[in-house]
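In response to reviewer comment 3 from the previous cycle, which asked for concrete evidence that the modeling workflow produces usable outputs, we include below a single protein chain processed end to end. The sequence was submitted unchanged, and the resulting structure tokens are shown without manual editing.
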Amino acid sequence: GRPDCPTKAPPPLPAGQTRTVTVETTQGTIVLRIDGSLGPNAAGNFVALAECGFYDGVVFHRLVPGFVIQGGDPDGNGTGGPGYTIQDQEVKGEYKRGTLAMARTSAPNSQNSQFFIVLTDDPAGPILESYRTYAIFGEVSDGMEVVDAIAAMPNSGDATGNQALEPVPMAKLTVSSP
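The workflow returned the following structure tokens.
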């Protein structure tokens, strides 16, 4: 990890507060709107990790066309994280194209630095909705075409977890107030 990054769950982003996170990639720029009213713990965690440079150089390691792209693992394979997890909270909002949500295992309180962006309203929405355990904490406000371009890149296929074969890194994340 980076010396100025959190070593335990950072404070939540209070309800009513938003941040804009600009994600520069080799495919273009994605702008995220982070909303503390949706998932305060997830939002506060993502903003803190973005501010300290945790995500800079980290790749989108999992590409599932028509479903999600997933990133935020410093190990680049879906097993890594920041060295801590965050507490689950009630999931608010709906899973639709552009939704930003936390990845997790089936274990309680297992969310860390990994996140995903939903690519389509259907069938992604109903599948994710059936679990309703992935904290929603924002949405793509600009650059969804970049997300689609990343999703279209080669992946290893369903049987091997849809690992990106030429993973696209997030070169730099910049956090600003709305």
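The first strand starts at residue 18 and ends at 25. We consider this sufficient to address the reviewer's concern, and the full set will be provided in the supplementary archive.
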